[in-house]
Amino acid sequence: MLTGIVSIIVGLAIVIWSIWFLPTKHGRTIFLGLFVLSFLMGGGIGQAFFFIPAWAFATRMDKPLTWWRKVLPRNTWLFLSKLWIFLLVIATIAMLIGLEMAIFGFFPGISDTETLQNVNMTFVFGAVILYVLSFIAGFGHELRRIELNNKIAL
């Protein structure tokens, strides 16, 4: 019970840190440390699929987008700019559905436990992929925003 309470407290700390302190000097390092602490306190291994990409993308905050400018063709920036929020919303919905299935063991039309577990994993892993794609699209959105700001400044 104690590790469960500590996991909840660490989880809340991760949320608070993500919202207010991630952009600080040591924000990304502490962010990673909180996830490791969560894992050690019983937060589960499944979170690794989410925190590793989240931490990796967080390390790029306040950094030049030079690499992304090379990798993402300029003609994709407008498309990615429009796509990122949609992907983020769909990923969050998929994750919430996966969490609902994990907590309550219910999905309409499915009564077989093994099938429910497979559908649950499909939603959760789908959310991971969609989150990564939304982060990449977010870089395209940021490149487009910078380009527009530079045109306005000229």
Rg: 18 Å
Largest sheet entry? none
H/E series:
HHHHHH
Classify the helix fraction into a percent range. Answer: over 70%
What structural category arises from helix and sheet content?
mainly alpha
Instruction: Determine the mean pLDDT.
Output: 90
Content of β-strand: under 5%
Q: Please tell me what the overall shape is.
A: flat
The low-confidence runs, each spanning 5 or more residues with pLDDT under 50, are none
How many helix segments?
A: 6
Number of strands: 0
Cα distance, first to last residue? 60 Å
Describe the structure.
The protein has 154 residues and is mainly alpha-helical. It is 80% helix and 0% strand. The chain has helices spanning 2-21, 27-43, 48-58, 66-71, 77-104, 113-153. Helix 1 runs antiparallel to helix 2 (27-43). The model has no long low-confidence stretch (mean pLDDT 90).
Task: List the topology elements.
Elements: H1 2-21, H2 27-43, H3 48-58, H4 66-71, H5 77-104, H6 113-153
Helix pairs in contact: 1-2, 2-3, 3-6, 5-6
Short description, anyone?
The chain has helices spanning 2-21, 27-43, 48-58, 66-71, 77-104, 113-153. The protein is mainly alpha-helical and 154 residues long.
